[in-house]
Design a protein that fits this description.
about 270 residues; alpha/beta; 6-stranded parallel beta sheet; 4-stranded parallel beta sheet; 7 helices; globular
Length: about 270
């Protein structure tokens, strides 16, 4: 059963597992990194939760602020062991961005050697030759923010940020993610269209994939992205205290989720 803990005018809803509230919802939007897996392997409770949701007939879309398109994210999840029939699809910010691209040549910012799947987009070698900049990934720490500042100096074309995450975990610790590069470009006077959590477009897309049920639960590990984005879209939110929220106290979290639990368990 859910347990309510009060602190003055505030209250938090802690649940022991998703089974406490799952039947209240007609669909779920579940974050990938930090909830289902740690980037290398699934968290211990993931397969049971996904199997139980499937058995209950609750459709799931897996959401991610990945600059890559949906297909490679589906491949990543299934390669870790999540059966393809356990979720409707992956919804990546890269896929939503790709579907929205119109116009001429693009300069793609990303991690060296990565293929973001923008196969029909004509890419150019310099932002000076582009009509749009696609900020799909980050090459930090190989490329620093000062390097990106020099690269984008004097450029005035619009940009699309395909991944709003500000920071990313790397073997050398936290490094600037695409959202930080996009914010830098805005500071320099550039115009940026943001696609991905917590911005509304990705939620409309994901809700449509699961049939636009009347009650949707958004599950994530980031208050800044998953909770803020889900609330803004009009959905209920559940924060899992793993990933970027690991080690934090619920009292520190803003904005507050509707529910929270320690681990992604049933």
């Amino acid at each position: 059963m859910a347990q309510r803990f009060s602190r003055g005018a505030e209250s938090d809803m802690r649940i022991q597992g998703l089974a406490d509230i799952a039947t209240q919802f007609g669909g779920m939007l579940i974050d990938q990194f930090g909830v289902l897996h740690d980037g290398r392997k699934l968290f211990p409770g993931t397969l049971e939760v996904m199997a139980q949701l499937k058995a209950a007939g609750i459709p799931v879309a897996i959401m991610t602020n990945s600059g890559k398109r949906a297909a490679p994210n589906v491949a990543r999840i299934t390669s870790m062991g999540v059966s393809r029939d356990m979720f409707v699809d992956c919804v990546s910010s890269g896929e939503v961005a790709y579907q929205s691209i119109t116009g001429g040549p693009a300069y793609i910012i990303g991690k060296q050697g990565e293929d973001y799947g923008f196969d029909t987009v004509k890419s150019v070698a310099s932002p000076a030759d582009a009509e749009v900049i696609l900020i799909a990934g980050s090459d930090a720490p190989r490329t620093s923010l000062d390097d990106y500042r020099r690269l984008l100096s004097g450029v005035s074309v619009p940009a699309i940020c395909c991944n709003p995450d500000k920071w990313m975990l790397t073997p050398t610790g936290l490094q600037p993610a695409p959202g930080t590069i996009a914010a830098l470009y805005e500071e320099m006077g550039g115009r940026v269209t943001w696609i991905g959590k917590p911005h509304p477009g990705i939620y409309r897309w994901a809700a449509g994939l699961i049939g636009n049920p009347s009650k949707i639960l958004c599950i994530g590990d980031s208050a800044e992205h998953d909770v803020a984005g889900g609330r803004a879209a009009g959905f209920s939110t559940l924060l899992v205290m793993t990933g970027v929220s690991e080690g934090k106290a619920i009292a520190e979290i803003e904005p507050k989720p509707d529910y929270w639990m320690s681990d992604f368990t049933w």
